[in-house]
Structure formats: C-alpha cells, structure tokens
Inverse folding.
C-alpha cells in the first residue's frame, strides 16, 4: 500500500506539468435529504464536516448509521467553478472501497456453491491470463482476495504516464491486466502480503467466467438492485449526480479540476479494484447490512472476519491498519476495532468502516485531496469526532 502512495504522489507531480481538457460540464444541483437531521449526535458530525473543510476539502458526503438512527449530509461544493452545493444525493468514485463489493460477490458465489475460496484461480481464468501473468497458475481465489498471491501491481509509473498523455483511456480490467504480461511476480505465492490491484482485476474475470455476466453486471443485478442500493453504481456510465474532482498538488490551497483524467484512469469495464461510484448514504447502508450478516452466510462472514496481520510496510500514517482479510481492513482506533476499507482514485477518495462494539457505520467520500487532507482523513483521530 505504501508503494501505491508513492505512485499516487508522482501522479500529481506530473499533473502540474500536464494540461488536460477544459472542463465544460456543470454538475446538476441535487435537492434531497437523507437520514435524520435531528440525530442526537448531529453536532458532533457537523464538527467533523467543519474539520474537513478546514483541511481544504472542496466537497464531501458523510453518513453515520448508529442505533439511534442515520445522519447524512453533503459538505462543501460538488462543483467549485459553478458553485453547486454538495448534497447527500451527489455521487463520487469510492476507489478501493470497490474491493468490498468484489469480495462480497465472490463470497456470494461461494454461498451458491459455484466456487470455493481455496479453488485454484486458474480453474476459472482464461488461458491467456494464466499463461502470461506470473503466479496466476498457482494462486488461489483466497490469495487474490487477501493480497498474498504475489501478482505484480498493474498501476505503475508507465501506466500513469500513458493516462496523462491520453494513450490509455478508460481501459477495461482485461486491458489493464495485459499491461503486466511477462512481468516477474513480486514474490512467491503465499510468502507474504503486498497490496496489488491486479488481484481484483483477476477476480473480475473469475466472476465473469462463473456467472456468464460481467463483474459489474453481476454486482448490479445480484447485490445492488435486490437490496435497494440505488445510488451505488457498478458500470461505465457516469450518473447525473456525479461531482467534479480536485487536487491540490502543492498543498497551498489551490485546487485544480482533474475530473477528466480521473475518469480516464478508472472508467473502464469491470474495474472492481477502484472504479465504482456511490453516495455515502447507500454506501453506509450496504456496509451496515454486510457487517451485520444480512447479505452473506454465516460461513462466509467467518471468512470475511478472518484477519491476518499486515506485514507490508504501510508508512507512519497507517500504523493503525492492523489486519487484512478478504477485501476488508481492520483498524485499531481510540474507540475499538473498525472494519472496512479506504479508497483512493487520486482526487476522489472514499472510506467506509463499521465499529462492531458501538454498532456504528461511517461512510465518507470526498471529491478532493492533498497531502494534508489525506493525512487527516486516514488518521485514526478522525474517528474521535464520532464518539
């Protein structure tokens, strides 16, 4: 995960030297209310909203589900240039929070008896990818889910440069995987853990092989629609509620619009590693339902909660990330354990976590980033605002 941060930092250093298309679209205003604005902890959550704005966040969507009810709010601006206020109905990319949906899809297929976690991945992968991706012929589905496969990361410096010069635009999972053909594995299967988005692109191919549907279609038809998560999107289309995306590369308070580049980077088909879109309200509802056993069998929930210590060096800012399971992180906070995932697609960032002790779920998605914002949002202290 630390290597991903280094790559992301270079991405935006390069952006300062690169021009992009002039932004012409205006984000539509959204009139809506979600949850209970009179929640007993509303004042606490409003302080968190204020802290985010103070750190330089342009816009964010925040939802907190507690035993006392649900609080949801838009924060700041969905469209800075056109002064469109953020509402709970606006949507943004959630980055690697998408991995929770991919893991849920795989576990649902296990519940249906269509695969098992310890099946060899090559049983379901097209031969083209088994032959050309190191370790794809010997890893299991479980090892793809928990990042112990050793399969190399596809998101590299070369990949970023291609995005910037528009030689790659909205590549699919399959197209991105072909970029690692012939590259050496990072380590032997099962030797250790190292976060690699390539693992989840391979999982998208497994979902397609088992179901006959694209991974996005399966997630939409079997997880999102049946459970009423109307504002979570697993497809390549951009909803009308979608916001702009901004980045302050110099940490000087100047936010540049990078929406087009963001969409070129992860707008392709079946990018279940980080391409999904949501508002915080439905994202929190999904995670609450998942964590409380409403979407998967008891056996699959046990697998989901079987955390192993993270051995990869994550850097000083993520020392509270204590474990990883199947598309799920375990944090050690000042208020006990939190289970969920962080997500980042450069400017767009998401996170969703469940606190089992308090039965509280928090989902936060933002449309802007900088080093200062990231340090605050990924700190364990941010959760102090909730309790």
């Amino acid at each position: 995960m630390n290597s991903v941060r280094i790559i992301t930092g270079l991405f935006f250093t390069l952006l300062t030297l690169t021009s992009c298309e002039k932004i012409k679209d205006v984000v539509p205003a959204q009139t809506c209310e979600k949850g209970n604005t009179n929640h007993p902890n509303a004042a606490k959550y409003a302080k968190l909203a204020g802290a985010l704005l103070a750190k330089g966040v342009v816009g964010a969507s925040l939802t907190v589900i507690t035993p006392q009810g649900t609080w949801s709010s838009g924060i700041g601006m969905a469209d800075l240039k056109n002064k469109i206020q953020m509402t709970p109905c606006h949507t943004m990319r959630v980055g690697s929070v998408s991995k929770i949906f991919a893991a849920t899809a795989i576990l649902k297929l296990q519940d249906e008896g269509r695969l098992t976690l310890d099946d060899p991945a090559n049983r379901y992968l097209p031969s083209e990818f088994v032959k050309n991706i190191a370790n794809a012929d010997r890893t299991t589905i479980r090892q793809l889910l928990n990042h112990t496969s050793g399969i190399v990361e596809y998101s590299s410096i070369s990949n970023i440069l291609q995005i910037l010069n528009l030689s790659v635009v909205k590549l699919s999972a399959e197209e991105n995987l072909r970029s690692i053909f012939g590259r050496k594995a990072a380590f032997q299967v099962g030797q250790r853990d190292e976060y690699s988005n390539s693992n989840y692109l391979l999982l998208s191919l497994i979902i397609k092989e088992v179901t006959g549907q694209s991974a996005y279609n399966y997630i939409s038809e079997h997880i999102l629609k049946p459970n009423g998560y109307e504002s979570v999107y697993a497809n390549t289309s951009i909803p009308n509620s979608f916001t702009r995306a901004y980045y302050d590369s110099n940490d000087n308070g100047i936010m540049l619009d990078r929406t087009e580049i963001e969409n070129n980077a992860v707008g392709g088909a079946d990018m279940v590693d980080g391409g999904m879109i949501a508002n915080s309200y439905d994202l929190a509802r999904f995670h609450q339902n998942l964590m409380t056993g409403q979407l998967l069998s008891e056996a699959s929930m046990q697998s989901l909660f079987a955390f192993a210590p993270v051995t990869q060096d994550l850097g000083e800012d993520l020392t509270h990330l204590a474990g990883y399971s199947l598309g799920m992180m375990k944090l050690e906070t000042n208020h006990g354990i939190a289970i969920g995932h962080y997500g980042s697609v450069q400017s767009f960032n998401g996170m969703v976590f469940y606190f089992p002790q308090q039965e509280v779920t928090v989902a936060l998605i933002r449309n802007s980033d900088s080093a200062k914002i990231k340090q605050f949002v990924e700190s364990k202290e941010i959760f102090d605002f909730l309790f």
About this structure: Residues 1-24 have pLDDT under 50 and may be disordered. The radius of gyration is 19 Å. The first strand starts at residue 59 and ends at 66.
